[in-house]
Protein backbone atom coordinates (compact mmCIF):
# COMPACT_ATOMS: atom_id res chain seq x y z
CA UNK A 1 0.00 0.00 0.00
CA UNK A 2 1.40 3.37 -1.02
CA UNK A 3 2.06 6.20 1.38
CA UNK A 4 -0.48 8.33 -0.52
CA UNK A 5 -3.29 5.83 0.11
CA UNK A 6 -2.28 5.58 3.76
CA UNK A 7 -2.44 9.35 3.99
CA UNK A 8 -5.92 9.42 2.43
CA UNK A 9 -7.18 6.76 4.82
CA UNK A 10 -5.69 8.60 7.76
CA UNK A 11 -7.58 11.77 6.86
CA UNK A 12 -10.88 10.10 5.97
CA UNK A 13 -12.24 9.73 9.54
CA UNK A 14 -11.67 13.42 10.23
CA UNK A 15 -13.54 14.36 7.05
CA UNK A 16 -16.40 12.02 7.89
CA UNK A 17 -16.52 13.48 11.40
CA UNK A 18 -16.80 16.99 9.91
CA UNK A 19 -19.70 15.87 7.69
CA UNK A 20 -21.48 14.36 10.68
CA UNK A 21 -21.03 17.59 12.62
CA UNK A 22 -22.44 19.64 9.75
CA UNK A 23 -25.50 17.38 9.78
CA UNK A 24 -25.91 17.67 13.55
CA UNK A 25 -29.41 19.10 14.30
CA UNK A 26 -27.90 21.05 17.21
CA UNK A 27 -26.43 23.47 14.66
CA UNK A 28 -29.99 24.56 13.86
CA UNK A 29 -30.00 26.34 17.23
CA UNK A 30 -27.28 28.77 16.18
CA UNK A 31 -29.38 31.31 14.18
CA UNK A 32 -31.90 31.82 17.00
CA UNK A 33 -29.18 31.96 19.66
CA UNK A 34 -27.17 34.48 17.61
CA UNK A 35 -30.28 36.62 17.08
CA UNK A 36 -31.10 36.65 20.80
CA UNK A 37 -27.48 37.28 21.74
CA UNK A 38 -27.36 40.44 19.63
CA UNK A 39 -30.84 41.92 19.99
CA UNK A 40 -31.82 40.63 23.44
CA UNK A 41 -28.87 39.73 25.69
CA UNK A 42 -26.49 42.45 24.49
CA UNK A 43 -28.96 45.31 25.18
CA UNK A 44 -29.72 43.92 28.64
CA UNK A 45 -26.00 43.68 29.43
CA UNK A 46 -25.55 47.24 28.18
CA UNK A 47 -28.46 48.33 30.38
CA UNK A 48 -26.70 46.89 33.41
CA UNK A 49 -23.40 48.52 32.36
CA UNK A 50 -24.97 51.98 32.17
CA UNK A 51 -26.74 51.50 35.51
CA UNK A 52 -23.38 50.98 37.30
CA UNK A 53 -21.51 53.73 35.41
CA UNK A 54 -22.03 56.46 38.01
CA UNK A 55 -19.44 57.86 40.42
CA UNK A 56 -19.66 54.48 42.12
CA UNK A 57 -21.32 51.32 40.88
CA UNK A 58 -24.15 51.67 43.42
CA UNK A 59 -24.75 55.43 43.26
CA UNK A 60 -27.80 55.24 40.98
CA UNK A 61 -29.26 52.30 42.90
CA UNK A 62 -28.80 54.14 46.20
CA UNK A 63 -30.79 57.00 44.74
CA UNK A 64 -33.59 54.63 43.67
CA UNK A 65 -34.00 53.27 47.18
CA UNK A 66 -33.41 56.61 48.91
CA UNK A 67 -36.24 58.47 47.18
CA UNK A 68 -39.56 57.63 48.91
CA UNK A 69 -41.49 57.92 45.61
CA UNK A 70 -39.68 54.95 44.06
CA UNK A 71 -39.41 52.88 47.23
CA UNK A 72 -43.13 53.29 47.94
CA UNK A 73 -43.91 52.42 44.32
CA UNK A 74 -41.79 49.27 44.54
CA UNK A 75 -43.54 48.13 47.73
CA UNK A 76 -46.91 48.96 46.15
CA UNK A 77 -45.99 46.92 43.07
CA UNK A 78 -45.18 43.89 45.22
CA UNK A 79 -48.43 44.25 47.16
CA UNK A 80 -50.58 44.60 44.05
CA UNK A 81 -48.81 41.71 42.30
CA UNK A 82 -49.26 39.35 45.26
CA UNK A 83 -52.90 40.37 45.65
CA UNK A 84 -53.63 39.86 41.94
CA UNK A 85 -51.88 36.46 41.96
CA UNK A 86 -53.90 35.44 45.03
CA UNK A 87 -57.19 36.53 43.43
CA UNK A 88 -56.33 34.70 40.23
CA UNK A 89 -55.58 31.55 42.23
CA UNK A 90 -58.79 31.85 44.25
CA UNK A 91 -61.00 32.14 41.17
CA UNK A 92 -58.81 30.29 38.70
CA UNK A 93 -58.76 26.93 40.48
CA UNK A 94 -62.56 26.40 40.46
CA UNK A 95 -62.66 27.50 36.82
CA UNK A 96 -60.01 24.95 35.87
CA UNK A 97 -62.04 22.28 37.71
CA UNK A 98 -65.17 23.41 35.83
CA UNK A 99 -63.43 22.90 32.48
CA UNK A 100 -62.10 19.51 33.58
CA UNK A 101 -65.45 18.25 34.83
CA UNK A 102 -67.45 19.46 31.82
CA UNK A 103 -68.03 17.27 28.81
CA UNK A 104 -68.82 17.68 25.13
CA UNK A 105 -69.93 21.00 23.75
CA UNK A 106 -70.13 22.53 27.25
CA UNK A 107 -66.42 21.94 27.79
CA UNK A 108 -65.59 23.42 24.38
CA UNK A 109 -67.63 26.56 25.07
CA UNK A 110 -66.19 27.06 28.57
CA UNK A 111 -62.62 26.53 27.36
CA UNK A 112 -63.18 28.95 24.48
CA UNK A 113 -64.54 31.57 26.87
CA UNK A 114 -61.27 31.31 28.83
CA UNK A 115 -58.84 31.02 25.93
CA UNK A 116 -60.35 33.77 23.76
CA UNK A 117 -59.59 36.70 26.13
CA UNK A 118 -56.08 35.34 26.72
CA UNK A 119 -55.09 36.21 23.13
CA UNK A 120 -56.79 39.60 23.00
CA UNK A 121 -54.49 42.56 23.57
CA UNK A 122 -54.19 43.81 27.16
CA UNK A 123 -54.90 47.35 25.96
CA UNK A 124 -58.22 46.27 24.44
CA UNK A 125 -59.29 44.30 27.50
CA UNK A 126 -58.42 47.26 29.72
CA UNK A 127 -60.33 49.60 27.43
CA UNK A 128 -63.32 47.26 27.76
CA UNK A 129 -63.25 47.72 31.55
CA UNK A 130 -63.07 51.49 31.10
CA UNK A 131 -66.26 51.26 29.05
CA UNK A 132 -67.94 48.93 31.53
CA UNK A 133 -67.10 51.08 34.57
CA UNK A 134 -67.52 54.49 32.94
CA UNK A 135 -70.17 57.04 34.00
CA UNK A 136 -72.34 56.06 31.03
CA UNK A 137 -71.41 52.39 31.30
CA UNK A 138 -73.73 49.47 32.07
CA UNK A 139 -72.56 48.97 35.69
CA UNK A 140 -73.36 52.57 36.67
CA UNK A 141 -76.73 52.38 34.93
CA UNK A 142 -77.54 49.06 36.61
CA UNK A 143 -76.70 50.44 40.08
CA UNK A 144 -78.86 53.50 39.45
CA UNK A 145 -81.77 51.44 38.12
CA UNK A 146 -81.88 49.15 41.17
CA UNK A 147 -81.62 52.09 43.58
CA UNK A 148 -78.13 51.52 44.98
CA UNK A 149 -76.96 54.83 43.49
CA UNK A 150 -79.02 57.97 42.97
CA UNK A 151 -76.82 59.11 40.05
CA UNK A 152 -73.80 57.74 38.15
CA UNK A 153 -70.49 57.98 40.01
CA UNK A 154 -66.84 57.63 39.07
CA UNK A 155 -65.98 53.94 39.44
CA UNK A 156 -62.59 54.24 37.75
CA UNK A 157 -59.16 55.42 38.89
CA UNK A 158 -58.83 53.62 42.23
CA UNK A 159 -57.05 50.58 43.66
CA UNK A 160 -60.13 48.38 43.32
CA UNK A 161 -60.39 48.88 39.57
CA UNK A 162 -56.66 48.24 39.17
CA UNK A 163 -56.98 44.92 40.99
CA UNK A 164 -60.12 44.03 39.05
CA UNK A 165 -58.59 44.90 35.69
CA UNK A 166 -55.28 43.13 36.30
CA UNK A 167 -57.02 40.05 37.71
CA UNK A 168 -59.32 39.88 34.69
CA UNK A 169 -56.35 40.22 32.32
CA UNK A 170 -54.23 37.54 34.03
CA UNK A 171 -56.95 35.04 35.03
CA UNK A 172 -56.73 33.04 31.77
CA UNK A 173 -53.02 32.43 32.41
CA UNK A 174 -53.80 31.02 35.86
CA UNK A 175 -56.71 28.89 34.62
CA UNK A 176 -54.75 27.37 31.75
CA UNK A 177 -51.75 26.61 33.99
CA UNK A 178 -53.86 24.88 36.66
CA UNK A 179 -55.96 23.06 34.07
CA UNK A 180 -52.86 21.48 32.53
CA UNK A 181 -51.99 20.17 36.00
CA UNK A 182 -55.51 18.92 36.72
CA UNK A 183 -55.80 17.21 33.30
CA UNK A 184 -52.70 15.09 34.01
CA UNK A 185 -54.09 13.63 37.23
CA UNK A 186 -54.77 9.93 37.53
CA UNK A 187 -58.52 9.91 38.15
CA UNK A 188 -58.39 6.41 39.66
CA UNK A 189 -56.80 7.91 42.80
CA UNK A 190 -59.85 10.06 43.56
CA UNK A 191 -62.18 7.12 42.83
CA UNK A 192 -60.15 4.92 45.16
CA UNK A 193 -60.42 7.52 47.93
CA UNK A 194 -64.21 7.69 47.52
CA UNK A 195 -64.47 3.91 47.45
CA UNK A 196 -62.50 3.77 50.71
CA UNK A 197 -65.15 5.85 52.47
CA UNK A 198 -63.71 9.35 52.16
CA UNK A 199 -66.21 12.14 51.53
CA UNK A 200 -65.93 14.25 48.36
CA UNK A 201 -64.33 17.17 50.20
CA UNK A 202 -61.90 14.90 52.02
CA UNK A 203 -60.98 13.21 48.72
CA UNK A 204 -60.38 16.61 47.17
CA UNK A 205 -58.30 17.86 50.10
CA UNK A 206 -56.24 14.70 50.52
CA UNK A 207 -55.83 13.63 46.86
CA UNK A 208 -56.52 16.27 44.21
CA UNK A 209 -55.26 19.38 46.02
CA UNK A 210 -51.84 17.93 46.98
CA UNK A 211 -51.27 16.63 43.45
CA UNK A 212 -52.13 19.97 41.87
CA UNK A 213 -50.04 22.10 44.25
CA UNK A 214 -47.16 22.33 41.72
CA UNK A 215 -49.59 23.62 39.09
CA UNK A 216 -51.02 26.11 41.57
CA UNK A 217 -47.53 27.28 42.48
CA UNK A 218 -46.54 27.62 38.81
CA UNK A 219 -49.70 29.61 38.07
CA UNK A 220 -49.21 31.89 41.07
CA UNK A 221 -45.61 32.64 40.14
CA UNK A 222 -46.35 33.19 36.44
CA UNK A 223 -49.11 35.66 37.30
CA UNK A 224 -46.93 37.36 39.93
CA UNK A 225 -44.02 37.78 37.49
CA UNK A 226 -46.34 39.12 34.79
CA UNK A 227 -47.99 41.55 37.22
CA UNK A 228 -44.65 42.99 38.42
CA UNK A 229 -44.00 44.53 35.01
CA UNK A 230 -47.58 45.69 34.35
CA UNK A 231 -47.85 49.13 32.85
CA UNK A 232 -50.96 49.51 30.66
CA UNK A 233 -53.76 48.50 33.04
CA UNK A 234 -52.60 50.49 36.12
CA UNK A 235 -52.05 53.56 33.94
CA UNK A 236 -55.58 53.50 32.51
CA UNK A 237 -57.55 52.24 35.54
CA UNK A 238 -55.58 53.54 38.50
CA UNK A 239 -55.22 56.88 40.23
CA UNK A 240 -52.13 58.80 41.40
CA UNK A 241 -51.82 56.51 44.43
CA UNK A 242 -51.79 53.35 42.30
CA UNK A 243 -48.64 53.93 40.27
CA UNK A 244 -46.59 50.79 39.80
CA UNK A 245 -42.82 50.67 39.38
CA UNK A 246 -42.86 50.06 35.60
CA UNK A 247 -44.81 53.29 35.11
CA UNK A 248 -41.90 55.37 36.46
CA UNK A 249 -39.60 53.92 33.78
CA UNK A 250 -41.86 55.12 30.96
CA UNK A 251 -42.30 58.51 32.65
CA UNK A 252 -38.53 59.00 33.00
CA UNK A 253 -37.76 57.74 29.48
CA UNK A 254 -38.25 61.18 27.88
CA UNK A 255 -35.87 62.90 30.30
CA UNK A 256 -32.41 63.51 28.84
CA UNK A 257 -30.84 63.93 32.29
CA UNK A 258 -32.06 60.59 33.64
CA UNK A 259 -29.53 58.33 31.88
CA UNK A 260 -27.98 55.97 34.38
CA UNK A 261 -30.73 56.49 36.91
CA UNK A 262 -33.33 55.36 34.37
CA UNK A 263 -31.32 52.23 33.62
CA UNK A 264 -31.01 51.59 37.35
CA UNK A 265 -34.80 51.62 37.63
CA UNK A 266 -34.95 49.02 34.87
CA UNK A 267 -32.26 46.84 36.45
CA UNK A 268 -34.08 46.88 39.81
CA UNK A 269 -37.27 45.66 38.16
CA UNK A 270 -35.35 43.07 36.13
CA UNK A 271 -33.46 41.82 39.19
CA UNK A 272 -36.65 41.31 41.20
CA UNK A 273 -38.24 39.44 38.31
CA UNK A 274 -35.25 37.17 37.76
CA UNK A 275 -34.92 36.52 41.50
CA UNK A 276 -38.55 35.37 41.69
CA UNK A 277 -38.09 33.14 38.64
CA UNK A 278 -34.87 31.70 40.07
CA UNK A 279 -36.54 30.79 43.37
CA UNK A 280 -39.49 29.30 41.50
CA UNK A 281 -37.18 27.32 39.24
CA UNK A 282 -35.38 25.94 42.27
CA UNK A 283 -38.57 24.37 43.64
CA UNK A 284 -40.70 23.80 40.52
CA UNK A 285 -38.10 23.45 37.79
CA UNK A 286 -37.77 26.11 35.10
CA UNK A 287 -40.10 24.10 32.88
CA UNK A 288 -43.02 25.89 34.56
CA UNK A 289 -42.24 28.90 32.33
CA UNK A 290 -43.09 27.12 29.09
CA UNK A 291 -45.53 24.63 30.62
CA UNK A 292 -43.61 21.56 29.48
CA UNK A 293 -41.73 18.64 30.85
CA UNK A 294 -37.98 18.58 31.33
CA UNK A 295 -36.08 18.25 28.04
CA UNK A 296 -33.66 15.39 28.55
CA UNK A 297 -31.95 13.00 26.19
CA UNK A 298 -33.43 9.94 27.83
CA UNK A 299 -36.69 9.35 29.62
CA UNK A 300 -36.48 9.00 33.41
CA UNK A 301 -36.56 5.54 34.82
CA UNK A 302 -39.93 4.27 35.94
CA UNK A 303 -38.73 3.86 39.50
CA UNK A 304 -37.45 7.43 39.61
CA UNK A 305 -40.68 8.73 38.16
CA UNK A 306 -42.84 6.86 40.65
CA UNK A 307 -40.57 7.92 43.50
CA UNK A 308 -40.86 11.55 42.41
CA UNK A 309 -44.66 11.34 42.17
CA UNK A 310 -44.85 9.75 45.58
CA UNK A 311 -42.63 12.45 47.00
CA UNK A 312 -44.82 15.18 45.55
CA UNK A 313 -47.95 13.49 46.86
CA UNK A 314 -46.38 13.12 50.29
CA UNK A 315 -45.25 16.76 50.40
CA UNK A 316 -48.59 18.03 49.10
CA UNK A 317 -50.53 15.90 51.53
CA UNK A 318 -48.37 17.14 54.40
CA UNK A 319 -49.08 20.75 53.44
CA UNK A 320 -52.79 20.03 53.10
CA UNK A 321 -52.81 18.29 56.48
CA UNK A 322 -50.97 21.12 58.19
CA UNK A 323 -53.33 23.85 57.01
CA UNK A 324 -56.48 21.96 56.23
CA UNK A 325 -57.61 19.68 59.04
CA UNK A 326 -59.74 22.35 60.76
CA UNK A 327 -61.46 23.11 57.46
CA UNK A 328 -61.75 19.41 56.70
CA UNK A 329 -63.53 18.74 60.01
CA UNK A 330 -65.81 21.72 59.44
CA UNK A 331 -66.85 20.96 55.84
CA UNK A 332 -66.22 17.22 55.68
CA UNK A 333 -69.89 16.35 56.16
CA UNK A 334 -71.23 18.63 53.45
CA UNK A 335 -72.80 16.86 50.45
CA UNK A 336 -70.96 16.65 47.15
CA UNK A 337 -73.46 19.06 45.58
CA UNK A 338 -72.00 21.93 47.65
CA UNK A 339 -68.62 21.54 46.01
CA UNK A 340 -70.22 21.11 42.58
CA UNK A 341 -72.27 24.29 42.86
CA UNK A 342 -69.31 26.24 44.28
CA UNK A 343 -67.25 25.28 41.23
CA UNK A 344 -70.10 26.19 38.88
CA UNK A 345 -70.86 29.54 40.50
CA UNK A 346 -67.23 30.69 40.76
CA UNK A 347 -66.42 29.40 37.29
CA UNK A 348 -69.49 31.13 35.89
CA UNK A 349 -68.47 34.38 37.56
CA UNK A 350 -65.01 34.15 35.99
CA UNK A 351 -66.45 33.52 32.54
CA UNK A 352 -68.78 36.52 32.94
CA UNK A 353 -65.88 38.75 34.04
CA UNK A 354 -63.81 37.67 31.03
CA UNK A 355 -66.46 37.71 28.32
CA UNK A 356 -68.93 40.43 29.36
CA UNK A 357 -66.59 43.42 28.74
CA UNK A 358 -65.74 42.09 25.27
CA UNK A 359 -69.41 41.66 24.36
CA UNK A 360 -70.24 45.17 25.61
CA UNK A 361 -67.46 46.70 23.50
CA UNK A 362 -68.55 44.80 20.40
CA UNK A 363 -72.13 46.05 20.83
CA UNK A 364 -70.94 49.63 21.32
CA UNK A 365 -69.02 49.47 18.04
CA UNK A 366 -72.42 49.41 16.28
CA UNK A 367 -73.84 52.32 18.31
CA UNK A 368 -75.55 55.22 16.58
CA UNK A 369 -74.68 57.59 19.44
CA UNK A 370 -71.99 60.23 18.99
CA UNK A 371 -70.51 59.44 22.39
CA UNK A 372 -69.69 56.34 24.43
CA UNK A 373 -72.82 54.95 26.10
CA UNK A 374 -74.38 51.57 26.82
CA UNK A 375 -76.86 50.31 25.88
CA UNK A 376 -76.68 52.20 22.57
CA UNK A 377 -79.74 54.27 21.62
CA UNK A 378 -79.67 52.69 18.15
CA UNK A 379 -77.50 50.65 15.83
CA UNK A 380 -75.44 51.95 12.95
CA UNK A 381 -72.26 51.29 10.94
CA UNK A 382 -71.19 54.94 11.16
CA UNK A 383 -68.14 54.19 13.33
CA UNK A 384 -66.94 51.44 10.99
CA UNK A 385 -67.27 53.89 8.09
CA UNK A 386 -65.33 56.49 10.05
CA UNK A 387 -62.56 54.01 10.89
CA UNK A 388 -62.08 52.78 7.31
CA UNK A 389 -62.30 56.30 5.86
CA UNK A 390 -59.82 57.87 8.33
CA UNK A 391 -56.39 58.01 6.69
CA UNK A 392 -54.55 58.05 10.03
CA UNK A 393 -56.27 54.92 11.29
CA UNK A 394 -55.80 53.10 7.99
CA UNK A 395 -52.13 54.09 7.77
CA UNK A 396 -51.60 52.75 11.29
CA UNK A 397 -53.55 49.60 10.40
CA UNK A 398 -51.41 48.85 7.34
CA UNK A 399 -48.23 49.65 9.23
CA UNK A 400 -49.23 47.13 11.91
CA UNK A 401 -49.93 44.52 9.22
CA UNK A 402 -46.53 45.01 7.57
CA UNK A 403 -44.61 45.01 10.87
CA UNK A 404 -46.52 41.97 12.15
CA UNK A 405 -45.94 40.03 8.90
CA UNK A 406 -42.20 40.76 8.98
CA UNK A 407 -41.98 39.94 12.67
CA UNK A 408 -43.83 36.64 12.21
CA UNK A 409 -41.53 35.71 9.31
CA UNK A 410 -38.43 36.35 11.45
CA UNK A 411 -39.89 34.44 14.41
CA UNK A 412 -40.95 31.47 12.26
CA UNK A 413 -37.60 31.20 10.46
CA UNK A 414 -35.60 31.31 13.68
CA UNK A 415 -38.11 29.49 15.89
CA UNK A 416 -38.68 26.55 13.54
CA UNK A 417 -34.92 26.03 13.23
CA UNK A 418 -34.49 26.25 17.02
CA UNK A 419 -37.37 23.84 17.67
CA UNK A 420 -35.83 21.27 15.33
CA UNK A 421 -32.50 21.71 17.07
CA UNK A 422 -34.06 21.27 20.52
CA UNK A 423 -36.21 18.24 19.72
CA UNK A 424 -34.05 16.34 17.21
CA UNK A 425 -30.56 16.81 18.67
CA UNK A 426 -28.84 15.07 21.56
CA UNK A 427 -27.10 18.21 22.77
CA UNK A 428 -26.48 18.54 26.49
CA UNK A 429 -28.32 21.14 28.53
CA UNK A 430 -31.51 21.24 26.49
CA UNK A 431 -33.50 22.69 29.37
CA UNK A 432 -30.98 25.53 29.78
CA UNK A 433 -31.12 26.32 26.05
CA UNK A 434 -34.92 26.19 26.09
CA UNK A 435 -34.91 28.53 29.09
CA UNK A 436 -32.84 31.04 27.12
CA UNK A 437 -35.12 30.76 24.09
CA UNK A 438 -38.30 31.41 26.09
CA UNK A 439 -36.81 33.83 28.64
CA UNK A 440 -38.04 36.98 26.79
CA UNK A 441 -41.56 36.26 28.02
CA UNK A 442 -40.49 36.79 31.64
CA UNK A 443 -38.52 40.02 31.12
CA UNK A 444 -40.75 43.05 31.83
CA UNK A 445 -41.57 44.70 28.48
CA UNK A 446 -40.64 48.17 29.76
CA UNK A 447 -37.16 46.89 30.68
CA UNK A 448 -36.73 45.23 27.28
CA UNK A 449 -37.96 48.35 25.48
CA UNK A 450 -35.60 50.57 27.47
CA UNK A 451 -32.61 48.32 26.75
CA UNK A 452 -33.43 48.10 23.03
CA UNK A 453 -33.74 51.87 22.68
CA UNK A 454 -30.02 52.44 23.25
CA UNK A 455 -29.04 49.68 20.79
CA UNK A 456 -31.45 50.92 18.12
CA UNK A 457 -30.17 54.49 18.46
CA UNK A 458 -26.66 53.22 17.78
CA UNK A 459 -27.70 51.45 14.57
CA UNK A 460 -30.27 54.07 13.48
CA UNK A 461 -33.15 51.60 13.80
CA UNK A 462 -35.49 53.72 15.95
CA UNK A 463 -38.62 54.45 13.90
CA UNK A 464 -37.80 51.84 11.24
CA UNK A 465 -40.19 49.10 10.16
CA UNK A 466 -37.50 46.42 10.16
CA UNK A 467 -36.21 47.44 13.59
CA UNK A 468 -39.69 47.34 15.08
CA UNK A 469 -40.39 43.95 13.47
CA UNK A 470 -37.11 42.53 14.81
CA UNK A 471 -37.91 43.83 18.30
CA UNK A 472 -41.39 42.28 18.19
CA UNK A 473 -39.83 38.99 17.02
CA UNK A 474 -38.05 38.71 20.39
CA UNK A 475 -41.44 37.96 21.97
CA UNK A 476 -42.74 35.97 19.00
CA UNK A 477 -39.78 33.58 19.02
CA UNK A 478 -40.70 31.86 22.34
CA UNK A 479 -44.27 31.32 21.08
CA UNK A 480 -43.01 29.64 17.91
CA UNK A 481 -40.47 27.49 19.74
CA UNK A 482 -42.98 26.21 22.30
CA UNK A 483 -45.70 25.40 19.73
CA UNK A 484 -43.39 23.77 17.19
CA UNK A 485 -41.47 21.81 19.84
CA UNK A 486 -44.79 20.31 20.97
CA UNK A 487 -45.71 19.56 17.34
CA UNK A 488 -42.34 17.93 16.59
CA UNK A 489 -42.57 15.73 19.67
CA UNK A 490 -45.82 14.34 18.25
CA UNK A 491 -44.16 13.28 14.96
CA UNK A 492 -43.28 9.59 14.67
CA UNK A 493 -39.50 9.62 14.14
CA UNK A 494 -39.67 6.15 12.58
CA UNK A 495 -41.23 7.70 9.47
CA UNK A 496 -38.29 10.10 9.17
CA UNK A 497 -35.80 7.27 9.72
CA UNK A 498 -37.52 5.12 7.10
CA UNK A 499 -37.32 7.92 4.54
CA UNK A 500 -33.63 8.48 5.33
CA UNK A 501 -32.85 4.74 5.03
CA UNK A 502 -34.33 4.75 1.52
CA UNK A 503 -31.91 7.45 0.42
CA UNK A 504 -33.78 10.69 1.07
CA UNK A 505 -31.66 13.66 2.04
CA UNK A 506 -32.26 15.53 5.28
CA UNK A 507 -33.95 18.36 3.37
CA UNK A 508 -36.18 15.91 1.50
CA UNK A 509 -37.16 14.14 4.74
CA UNK A 510 -38.12 17.44 6.28
CA UNK A 511 -40.05 18.62 3.22
CA UNK A 512 -41.97 15.40 2.56
CA UNK A 513 -42.36 13.87 6.03
CA UNK A 514 -41.77 16.32 8.89
CA UNK A 515 -43.26 19.48 7.40
CA UNK A 516 -46.68 17.99 6.51
CA UNK A 517 -46.90 16.49 10.02
CA UNK A 518 -46.23 19.79 11.78
CA UNK A 519 -48.14 22.00 9.33
CA UNK A 520 -51.07 22.69 11.72
CA UNK A 521 -48.60 23.70 14.43
CA UNK A 522 -46.65 25.82 11.95
CA UNK A 523 -49.82 27.63 10.89
CA UNK A 524 -50.84 28.24 14.50
CA UNK A 525 -47.33 29.43 15.45
CA UNK A 526 -47.29 31.81 12.48
CA UNK A 527 -50.62 33.30 13.45
CA UNK A 528 -49.80 33.75 17.14
CA UNK A 529 -46.41 35.30 16.30
CA UNK A 530 -48.26 37.64 13.92
CA UNK A 531 -50.86 38.45 16.58
CA UNK A 532 -48.18 39.10 19.22
CA UNK A 533 -46.57 41.72 16.99
CA UNK A 534 -49.90 43.17 15.85
CA UNK A 535 -50.86 43.77 19.52
CA UNK A 536 -47.47 44.87 20.83
CA UNK A 537 -47.59 48.31 22.47
CA UNK A 538 -44.88 48.70 25.10
CA UNK A 539 -41.87 48.07 22.82
CA UNK A 540 -43.52 50.24 20.19
CA UNK A 541 -43.76 53.15 22.65
CA UNK A 542 -39.96 53.06 23.01
CA UNK A 543 -38.98 52.28 19.40
CA UNK A 544 -41.49 54.04 17.15
CA UNK A 545 -41.41 57.60 15.84
CA UNK A 546 -43.84 60.32 14.78
CA UNK A 547 -43.74 58.92 11.24
CA UNK A 548 -44.17 55.28 12.30
CA UNK A 549 -47.38 54.66 14.22
CA UNK A 550 -49.00 51.27 14.66
CA UNK A 551 -52.62 50.52 15.45
CA UNK A 552 -52.00 49.83 19.19
CA UNK A 553 -50.09 53.13 19.39
CA UNK A 554 -53.01 55.03 17.84
CA UNK A 555 -55.40 53.21 20.16
CA UNK A 556 -53.22 54.09 23.17
CA UNK A 557 -53.25 57.77 22.29
CA UNK A 558 -57.02 57.90 21.90
CA UNK A 559 -57.72 55.87 25.06
CA UNK A 560 -55.64 58.33 27.09
CA UNK A 561 -57.34 61.46 25.73
CA UNK A 562 -60.84 60.53 24.60
CA UNK A 563 -63.16 57.54 24.55
CA UNK A 564 -65.30 57.13 21.46
CA UNK A 565 -66.90 54.20 19.61
CA UNK A 566 -64.11 54.15 16.98
CA UNK A 567 -61.97 52.46 19.63
CA UNK A 568 -64.70 49.85 20.01
CA UNK A 569 -64.47 49.20 16.26
CA UNK A 570 -60.73 48.52 16.55
CA UNK A 571 -61.39 46.21 19.50
CA UNK A 572 -64.10 44.32 17.62
CA UNK A 573 -61.85 43.76 14.61
CA UNK A 574 -59.17 42.46 16.98
CA UNK A 575 -61.61 40.00 18.58
CA UNK A 576 -62.66 38.70 15.16
CA UNK A 577 -59.00 38.27 14.24
CA UNK A 578 -58.36 36.25 17.40
CA UNK A 579 -61.41 34.05 16.80
CA UNK A 580 -60.16 33.28 13.28
CA UNK A 581 -56.75 32.37 14.71
CA UNK A 582 -58.22 30.06 17.34
CA UNK A 583 -60.19 28.25 14.64
CA UNK A 584 -56.94 27.89 12.73
CA UNK A 585 -55.14 26.60 15.83
CA UNK A 586 -57.89 24.13 16.79
CA UNK A 587 -55.99 21.02 15.55
CA UNK A 588 -52.92 22.04 17.56
CA UNK A 589 -54.92 22.72 20.72
CA UNK A 590 -56.67 19.36 20.35
CA UNK A 591 -53.32 17.61 19.95
CA UNK A 592 -51.95 19.41 23.01
CA UNK A 593 -54.95 18.30 25.12
CA UNK A 594 -54.41 14.68 24.05
CA UNK A 595 -50.71 14.89 24.86
CA UNK A 596 -51.47 16.46 28.23
CA UNK A 597 -53.94 13.79 29.22
CA UNK A 598 -51.55 10.95 28.41
UniProtKB/TrEMBL annotation:
| Single GO biological process annotation from the record | transmembrane transport
Ordered alphabetically, the record's keywords are: Cell inner membrane, Cell membrane, Membrane, Transmembrane, Transmembrane helix, Transport
The keyword Cell inner membrane belongs to this UniProt entry's keyword annotation: yes
Say which domain of life the source belongs to: Bacteria
Q: Which GO terms describe its cellular component?
A: plasma membrane
TM annotation in the entry? 26-45, 77-99, 106-127, 162-182, 220-241, 261-284, 349-374, 394-420, 432-453, 465-488, 509-531, 563-585
The cellular location(s) given in this protein's UniProt record come to: Cell inner membrane; Cell membrane
Q: Which InterPro entries match?
A: MetI-like (IPR000515), MetI-like_sf (IPR035906)
Q: How does it sit in the membrane?
A: Multi-pass membrane protein
Q: Where in the numbering of this chain does the ABC transmembrane type-1 domain appear?
A: 74-280, 397-585
Major subcellular location class: membrane
PROSITE patterns for this protein: ABC_TM1
Family the UniProt entry places it in: Belongs to the binding-protein-dependent transport system permease family.
Q: Which PANTHER family match?
A: INNER MEMBRANE ABC TRANSPORTER PERMEASE PROTEIN YDCV
From the Swiss-Prot or TrEMBL record, give the protein name. ABC transporter permease
**Which species?**
Bradyrhizobium nitroreducens
Amino acid sequence: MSSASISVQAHRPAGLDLVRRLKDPALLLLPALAFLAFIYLLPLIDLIRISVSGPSWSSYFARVFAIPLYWDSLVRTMQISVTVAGLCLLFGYPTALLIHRSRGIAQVLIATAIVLPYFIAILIRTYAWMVLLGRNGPINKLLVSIGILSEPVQLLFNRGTVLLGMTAVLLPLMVLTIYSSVARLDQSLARAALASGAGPIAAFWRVMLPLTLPGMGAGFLLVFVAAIGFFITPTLLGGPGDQMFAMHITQQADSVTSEGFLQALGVVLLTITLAVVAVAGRFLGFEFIWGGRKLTEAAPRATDRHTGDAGRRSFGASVADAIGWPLLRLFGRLPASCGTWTVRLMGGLVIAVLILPIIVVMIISFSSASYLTFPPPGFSLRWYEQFFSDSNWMRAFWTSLVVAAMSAAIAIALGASAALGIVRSNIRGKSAIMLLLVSPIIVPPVVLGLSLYSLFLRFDLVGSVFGLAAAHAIGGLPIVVVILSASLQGVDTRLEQAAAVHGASSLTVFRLVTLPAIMPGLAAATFFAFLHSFDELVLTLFLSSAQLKTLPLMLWGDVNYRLNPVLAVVSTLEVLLVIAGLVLARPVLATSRKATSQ
